[in-house]
Amino acid sequence: MKTPGAIDGRRSTAARMLQVAERDGLVDDTIPRERQACLRLNAVGLLRRDLKLASRWYPVETAMRSEVRP
User: Which tops the pLDDT comparison, 23 or 70?
Assistant: First the structure.
């Protein structure tokens, strides 16, 4: 049974956004569906938002190294 809000391994928008963020060190949301996916990933602690550019997201490990705050 799938828990509400859980991120699974299928190729959902959230999975794609997280994969790009981890591969490239950042990801930009360009459509509302991507923004929602990034907000969900942020809620579970996998992405952090850039302080100056709201559409830019960093994986938590990169954000911690760069001292980017949510």
Answer: 23
